[in-house]
Specification:
With about 525 residues, the protein is mainly β. It has helices at about 20-25, 30-40, 65-70, 195-200, 210-215, 510-515; strands spanning about 80, 85-90, 95-105, 110-115, 125, 130-140, 145-150, 170-175, 180-190, 205-210, 225-235, 240, 255-260, 260, 265-270, 270-280, 285-290, 295-300, 305-310, 315, 320-330, 335-340, 365-375, 400-410, 415-420, 430-435, 440-445, 450-455, 460-465, 485, 490-495, 505-510, 520-525. The chain has six helices and 33 strands. The longest helix is centred in the N-terminal third of the chain and has 9 residues, at about 30-40. The protein binds CU-O-CU linkage (C2O) and copper (II) ion (2 copies). One copper (II) ion binds near residues 147, 149, 455 and 457.
């Protein structure tokens, strides 16, 4: 079979998604079977009902309406007012995951995977010490299991992929929330499907409060903004597509989404706001800043509140990392506007490759913020925040090393493997046995061309050092973390201690395409 030509409709930053286009298929001739699947699932075909064929594309709801809609470039689409997800409490809560129709702004309604009909998934608000009683109903056409990222429940409630339930199945989660006040989240952990599920809309924030946080009187109500930042690729009609996921860099999009809205905007008062930010992208790393040049006040990260507030100009946030920041709009004038945006950066030693329509480190405006009302807000900005229970590296009794490597593999369909210590994920194999309660030093190394956000379940760790690459520990890596960004050529050392539960948990890359192709290992805490 010969090489396909690129489609003339396929523009940089605006891929056509056609199975006949070389730019969209990586020049790989598409087999007849695959072609039929893609064609049957294409953007102008309505989605089949439950149990039927579900498209890899986000289908437009009205096939005919879409056909009438002229092709757009993303820049022509408007900035749309961002919504906040509905809030729920984790008591007698049912979370139903199902295909559904979501408004993504710009007048577009598309088919996604939704939890309780909402995009993004509802915000779960809990208190430390709360019982967590949640039933998941799986109405997706795939197996599903949810993971509570950053919480430390017992193993049967942690969402290991071996617990995934079939379509129409249910799963009961019962545990006590033991974690500090912080910004956590939940998402699918179905093996091979995490990336697609997240991309299509499964994922919500999980906000935990406690007494230490109450005492700080942080901005709340309409001045507390849960914010899931993501990127997606759009087809010529502005509809998000998830096809031919790039297993090298991971699926990097060209269009910004905030809480499920493409090109989100919000109006604010001249007040102090709290943003609970999650990088919910499959693969894109953000280097966040305010385009008006003002700093952000960082108060928390993956592991909850920091010991004290820190003023930061920029924030590197890999997939799955969170930042809890205060933004002060009190010295702005009504009518002023600016963006929360991601800056251009180089991935040191990173691989770039011609096929990708979007690259890691490209700049993008993420959220447009407009000041629309003058008010008086005397809220203080706290300095001392919290007592962080850090593991002490001087008490370490053992060291372990984890090598994150990527290789070409022409024999596999994905053409790329990503491994930890040479292993591809096997649900039934235990790679590491870690004694409960011991403090250990874990070293993560990456001598390949891709960045890996390294995530550990069942505990939080303390970042001790980063050598090579960016060569420093950042302000937002103080305190406790559950995900740490490992750029090419970087070696990161962390202090780890499991004190929550014994059981089988996971260590994996949170670049979701990397995770799906097997960059994950089992860790048994015993
Ligand atoms: Cu956020 Cu194992 O996942
Ligand atoms: Cu997790
Ligand atoms: Cu990775």
């Amino acid at each position: 079979m010969s090489e396909l030509p690129p489609s003339p409709d396929c523009l940089p930053g605006n891929p056509c998604g056609s199975p006949r286009c070389s730019a969209c298929t990586g020049g790989r001739p598409v087999s007849r079977r695959e072609f039929l699947w893609l064609a049957a699932a294409g953007g102008t075909t309505a989605l089949a009902g439950a149990g039927g064929l579900i498209s890899p594309v986000w289908s437009a709801v009205e096939a005919s309406a879409q056909a009438r809609r002229p092709p757009v470039t993303p820049r022509e689409l408007p900035w749309t007012t961002m919504r906040l997800a509905p809030e729920v409490r984790p008591e007698q809560l049912t979370l139903r995951a199902a295909p559904g129709i979501a408004d993504i702004g710009g007048g577009l309604e598309v088919q996604g995977f939704l939890v309780n009909g909402s995009l993004p998934s509802p915000v779960i608000r809990a208190r430390k010490g709360d019982p967590f009683r949640v039933t998941m109903e799986n109405q997706l056409p795939d197996p599903l299991i949810l993971h509570w990222h950053g919480l430390t429940p017992p193993e049967e409630a942690d969402g290991h992929p071996r617990f995934a339930v079939r379509p129409r199945g249910t799963f009961d989660y019962r545990f006590t929330v033991e974690n500090r006040a912080g910004t956590y989240w939940y998402h699918s952990h179905t093996h091979y499907k995490v990336a697609e599920h997240a991309y299509r809309g499964i994922g919500g924030l999980l906000l935990v409060g406690d007494e230490e946080e109450d005492a700080l009187e942080l901005p709340s109500g309409p001045r507390e903004i849960p914010l899931i930042l993501q990127d997606r690729r759009l087809d010529r009609h502005g509809i998000p597509v998830y096809e031919h996921p790039d297993t090298m860099e991971g699926h990097i999009g060209t269009a910004p989404f905030g809480n499920g809205i493409h090109q989100p905007r919000m109006e604010v008062e001249t007040a102090l706001y709290r943003f609970r930010i999650l990088n919910g992208s499959n693969a894109r790393i953000f280097r966040l800043e305010r385009s008006d040049g003002r700093p952000m006040i960082l108060i928390g990260n993956d592991g909850g509140l920091l010991d004290e507030a820190r003023s930061v100009e920029t924030l590197d946030l890999g997939p799955a990392e969170r930042a809890d920041v205060l933004m002060d709009f009190r010295d702005l004038e009504v009518g002023e506007e600016f963006f929360l945006r991601t800056l251009r950066f180089e991935v040191p030693g990173g691989v770039t490759h011609g096929r990708s329509v979007a690259k890691q480190g490209e700049p993008m405006d993420l959220l447009r913020i407009q000041v629309d009302r003058k008010v008086d807000d005397p809220s203080p900005i706290p300095t001392r925040l919290s007592q962080v229970p850090l593991p002490d590296p001087d008490e370490a009794v053992r060291e372990r090393r984890f090598e994150f490597t990527s290789d070409r593999d022409w024999s596999s369909r994905t053409m790329m493997t990503h491994r930890i210590n040479g292993q591809e994920f096997d649900m039934n194999r235990i790679e590491e046995r870690v004694p409960f309660g011991d403090t250990e030093i874990w070293t993560f190394t990456n001598d390949n061309g891709f960045a890996h956000p390294v995530h550990l379940h069942a505990t939080h760790f303390r970042v001790l050092s980063r050598t090579g690459g960016r060569d420093r520990v950042f302000e937002h890596e103080a305190g406790l973390k559950d995900t740490v960004l490992l750029h090419p050529n970087e070696t990161v050392k962390v202090a780890v201690r499991f004190t929550a539960h014994r059981g089988l948990f996971l260590l994996h890359c949170h670049n979701l395409e990397h995770e799906d192709v097997g960059m994950m290992i089992n860790v048994l805490v015993e």
